[in-house]
Amino acid sequence: MRDASISIARGIAIIFMVMGHAGCPVEMRQFFALFHMPIFFFVSGCCLKDKYFEAPILYVRKRFSGVYWPFLKCGLLFVCLHNVFYHLHLYDIHYYFQGVSVGPYSLIDYIKHSGGGDAQPFW
Questions:
Q1: Could you identify which of 29, 43, 102, 104 might form a hypothetical disulfide with 20, taking C-beta atoms 3.0 to 4.6 angstroms apart as the criterion?
Q2: How far apart are CA 82 and CA 56, in angstroms?
């Protein structure tokens, strides 16, 4: 049977994380940062199934197919559609990421941001 207190703790941690990223005052964000991630780690440990201790390869395979692969596909989709989003003004012309202005990508930029160059991808 599912324990409702674990779901409640997860919900509270998610609320604190959203509030911290939603432009709340710095003092509140720093306060939330003290405990919202430890709650996630603790709850994740509570939700880990015993069968994964006996078959860690199964766990890695499940994490890869359920988390990493969708993350990779989504990231590559956004890299591929970068110029479309830029020309639709979905990206602000004055936005800077890691000190680099976001503008239309050249072929070299696509290679770098897809993980094929020496630059770190944006995702």
A1: 29
A2: 37
| pTM metric for this prediction | 0.52
CA distance 86 to 35: 37
Flag whether pLDDT at 52 surpasses 70.
Answer: yes
First to last CA, the chain: 37
pLDDT of residue 99: 65
pLDDT in tens, 96-121: 666 666 778 888 888 887 765 444 44
Q: Classify 98 in phi/psi space as left (phi over 0), alpha (psi -120 to 50) or beta.
A: left
Between 48-52, 73-77, 96-100, the lowest mean confidence (pLDDT) is in: 96-100
Mapping DSSP to helix (H, G, I), strand (E, B) and coil, where does residue 37 land? helix
Burial 88-110 (b: 16+ CB within 10 A, else e): eeebeeeeeeeeeebeebeeebe
Q: Give residue 47's identity as a one-letter amino acid code.
A: C
What span, in angstroms and rounded, lies between the C-alpha atoms of 20 and 14? 10
